[in-house]
Amino acid sequence: MKDQLNALANQWNQSLKDLFDHDPERGSRFVTTGAGLRLDYSKHWIDQAVLEALSEILANCHFAAMRDQLFDGEKVNVTEDRSVLHVALRAQMNDTFRVNGVSIVSDVLQARDQAYAFANQIRDGSLLGATGKKFTDVVNIGIGGSDLGPLMVSEALKPLIDGPRPHYVSNADGAHLHDTIAALDPEATLFLIASKTFTTQETMHNASKAQQWISDVLGHRAIASHFVALSTNTEAARAFGVSEERMFGFWDWVGGRYSVWSTIGLSLMIALGPGVFDRFLNGAREMDLHFRESSLLSNIPVIMALLGVWYRNGFGLQTQAVLPYEQRLHRFPAYLQQMEMESNGKRIDRDGQSVAYDTCPVIWGEPGTNGQHAFFQLLHQGTLVCPIDFILSANPTNTDSESHVLLNANCLAQSESLAFGKSHEEVYQEMVDQGISASQAKQLAPHRSFPGNRPSSTIMMTQLTPETLGALIAAYEHKVFTQGVLWNINSFDQWGVELGKVQCKALRASFDSGHASNFSSSTREGVRWLRKNMH
Ligand code: F6P
Questions:
Q1: At 304, is the pLDDT very low, low, confident or very high (cuts 50, 70, 90)?
Q2: Quick check: CB of 145 below 6 Å from ligand 1?
Q3: Segment 342-348 mean pLDDT
Q4: Fewer CB in a 10 Å sphere around the end CB: N or C, the chain?
Q5: Does the CB atom of residue 196 touch ligand 1 within 6 A?
Q6: Catalytic residues
Q7: Is 229 a member of any domain?
């Protein structure tokens, strides 16, 4: 793959300006649609021949068979010997998903119904706090996939929240819990302890602090009414003190970063209501169908994946920006950081060999237009080229359309300027026409010109709705899977997070004992300094 991509990239010598000049239809030729999304990928370093070559590389990686294996519940997570079936969480009654040959659809629907019933009881007040108060606030305590997804979706769909207010606490920093509960009434606060494993240190620590808060104010017996567990580890949840009817489970075939569709989404079901959550699932399911059924070159996730690999392996580009022109998607880049970098940030292939090529780029981003006044200088005139995903919608959700048009004009202005730039000659002439002296214009022109040829995709939707949001997330999920196929890596484990966890346990003890002799002199001195300066 690497050699093929390098060879292709070495032959590539067309600028975006040339491509558009030579093909007046390019802006409609390189566009595909599906599940309510429109992907414009015309502003990329591709032509039909490159796309066909890229799709051939993918086909040669047995992509079609591997996609079937994923949906058929085969154990594609080879290092953990597990199926990967977050797609089954979007299932409807007549869909078929199996694990070990056994249908899981009725289990999925039953778990969903139970969570919905509970959400409705919290929403309508038939389940109350220990002192008889209706819950007004729900605090989800979790981290990584047990936080980023629900948090991102609750921000994205904020105008649709009509139930108790959702809050999210993730960080081990006590300030996070402290500041979140500071304004809350313990009698009206429900805590959801969201942890697939129910062993994650930060989550368990924050959960016991929250327990302490409830117990201090309302008494120990109140804990039963104020705590819920979202986990696959029912035993640990029980040991924590959560009763059976307050446990909402899921399965080991749901990866943490793919779990927002499961009961990990309970905070959303409560805040938005089951009806909205269903719409969110349906949008993702539409994208699943699009991903399974569309040909490679009209397939949104496949095209996104091919472009990513083209830049990463053909041209050695190291980062990928995701810039939503949609304030409510402000946590989307952070969500994608986990989804992409935890999934494909790997250097060992599925056969246990070191890869001889680069894998996942650094994913980063901020909502527009804020980013324009921060880092866009580098995107336009810096030395590195960073492909961008712009995301925007035709209509606002509950703001005025005048602001939204301004927002969208900004978005298109950026992709246009990045692609086509402004030449030295144009800049020079413009200054001279404005009356600036020729010598000054000559001096300033290099600083004021834009090289252009900076690639971007533009993902459009009519509006950010539960459906389009579901489809958008699912598109990225399938992009990540497709890139894992191209890189021949297992996108579904995350052993890379383990070492730090183990070291932290040992270091935590060093803070008590003062002994850190097993660590480097830097870390040892760090512990010593911190201990000495602790109040
Ligand atoms: O440490 C990484 C990780 O395992 C993520 O993959 C996961 O989303 C997060 O921790 C939280 O895990 P859990 O849901 O088990 O608490």
A1: very high
A2: yes
A3: 98
A4: C
A5: yes
A6: 342, 373, 501
A7: yes
412-426 in b/e form (b: 16+ CB < 10 A) is eebbebbbbbeeeee
CATH at residue 139: 3.40.50.10490
Summarize pLDDT for 162-216 with one digit per residue, the tens.
Answer: 999 999 999 999 999 999 999 999 999 999 999 999 999 999 999 999 999 999 9
**Token representation of residue 47:** 């032509």
143 in ligand 1 pocket by Cβ < 6 Å?
yes
From 79, 84, 146, the mutation candidate for ligand 1 (largest count of ligand atoms within 8 A of CB) is: 146
> Containing domain of residue 510, as a range?
496-533
Same-domain status, 320 and 428: yes
Q: How far is the CA of 313 from the centre of ligand 1 (A)?
A: 29
Please tell me whether residues 520 and 487 are part of one structural domain.
no
Q: Which atom of ligand 1 is nearest to the CA of 342?
A: 6
Residues 217, 186: contact at Cβ < 8 Å? Answer: yes
Report CA(484)–ligand 1 centroid distance (Å). Answer: 20
Q: What is the pLDDT of residue 20?
A: 98
Return d(Cα 441, Cα 427) in angstroms, integer: 8
Is residue 166 one of the residues assigned to a domain?
A: yes
CA separation, residue 74 to residues 65, 67, 114, 306, 350 (Å): 11, 10, 27, 24, 15
Mean pLDDT of the chain: 97
* Residue 357 pLDDT greater than 90, yes or no: yes
For the entire predicted model, the pTM comes to 0.97
